[in-house]
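Appendix B, Record 12. Input sequence as logged:
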Amino acid sequence: MTVNNNEGRRASAKDDTNGFVNVSFTHDERPGETVIRRKSGNSNSLQLDNGTTNTTIAAPIDFDDILPMIGEFGKYQKILFICMIPFAFFVAFIYFSQIFLTLIPEQHWCSVPELESIPLEERLALSIPRMDNGDYHNCFMYNVNYTDLLAKGIRKADPTWPRVACMHGWSYNFTEIPYTTVATEENWVCENDTLPTYAQSIFFLGAIVGGLLFGWIADKFGRIPSLIGCNLVGFAAGIATAFVSNFWQFAVMRFFVGFAFDNCFTMIYILVLEYVGPRYRTFVANMSIAIFFTMAACMLPWIAYYLADWRLLAVVTSAPLLLAVLTPLIVPESARWLVSQGKVSQAISILKKVEKVNGKHISPETYQNFSDSCAKLRQEESTNHSYSILDLFKTPRLRRTTILLIIIWMAISLVFDGHVRNVGSLGLDIFFTFTVASFTEFPADTLLTLTLDRFGRRWLACGSMVLSGIFSLLATIAPVGVYSASLAIVGRFFVNISYNIGLQYAAEILPTVVRAQGVAFIHIMGYVASIIAPFVVYLTYISPMLPLIILGILGIAGGLLSLLLPETLDHDLPQTLSDGEEFGRGQSIFDFPCLAKKINESDDLEVRSPHFVRSTQSGASLRASTGGELRSSILQRSVRSRYTSKL
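Logged structural output:
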């Protein structure tokens, strides 16, 4: 049967929904013409479809077909892009603020009330024993009668005096950190110095619970209610943080703040990408992080420095989350979700609004075709087999790939969060060092935008992780200070690249029928690794170099494991479990997508490397996401509607 593409199919020629399937372009068939189609998944065979009739039918239209007609990145999408700014600030504040709420000056000593009237140097010389390196001890004081010593005019301690743990609290040197924090107010030092670490891990436990809860809400009630809900929880718990008076109150509040982490931005991130055409998704996906998130992260330490009050910092970084209640006034509900719920008319109303703002015009027949296609798709999906995460572990190759993805993503998450939290151990001013380290997100995302769809996922993931590990290890042998900090920051730069590749890679490799559940599960396992990261950083109390050694080894190991995954660039991605089992079979570690030659448009010929079939990739890369976006049934469409390759 010959198919004459209507205006939707001719205008489309884009990649699969949500950017997770690499694009191949369509081909207008003519009566009597032989068209060769390549099957989806990793099949290397070709399927012939010989045209034998002139019957003309309307080709089904899906969401990515209609986007080019209403405008891929017009005025409406640019407004949505700008709307991502506050939410990027929210996630940066939620993620990083606890660092500045729990800072503890490196110089702190036992407080001795009897000596408060004498200068600091005399006080330390008389009351605090020295450690082996010559520094004053943080946790011990001499157990003597200081009133008698002062009366006798003694101003220097005898090292043989008996020692005792601090009895009257601690004194802190606020020269480098010019404000009290919850950790210094509550004296989370010495025997209690693990409490900030526990609080950070509890925060990530909240992120796991919140991810599951608000992911369910997003599927059940919509993306906008989920977005508003998680931000309101973060707002309430963040404000309440300013009024805590002990560790467990603080930990409970951070647990609920963790509910908002990731979800407070991921929901709108995915939602905006949904309305952006495939050709612009790489730009929007990466540059929204590179510009907005980086800007917020770089500003945060100076907000903390200027406010110089941890309670006020908690309020200032939490209050803006209340703005999320205004979201429905500007940002529409997910059209894909509406379609998946059978609310096609509401989805079409949103598309018509986008069309109007962008100054486009689409015929009513096109919308009717879209509506009919969605109805047919829902009918097909209602009869589909139900799959679960366990299906990923039933066959050997797919099980191996899934386990690799979990291990690699956990390594990336741990290394990334470890670098974020280890910035205070680099021997320089933490406010300046944190700013420089955060700024590396901008060049990392920009570089990734330019290279990801040329060099592929596998070797970029490997190279960036291995280089992150190498520079982390080099930082351990460099002189403490500027040199070691610079090398560690370069390590942070490369792990930024790895992080941005990570879950997109998983979303491309896993079969469509279990992609949503698989991506969510891998994301949660990343949170589990992040729970461990604060304890890795805590090892700095044993040796300042130990965290970087662990991060370096994990980076190199995770990078090398990436080479065992199949490349996804310029491949039709797996739809079924059997596709997933066969995906990547026959690929060599040394196959590079950039070495495959592009299609010669003039003579319809293409020279191919054995296992790479190139197509006109438009570069639709997406970053890590939960929130259930992929679970929308509109994304689980039939493979026969896509992947027509021109040879």
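The chain has 23 helices and six strands.
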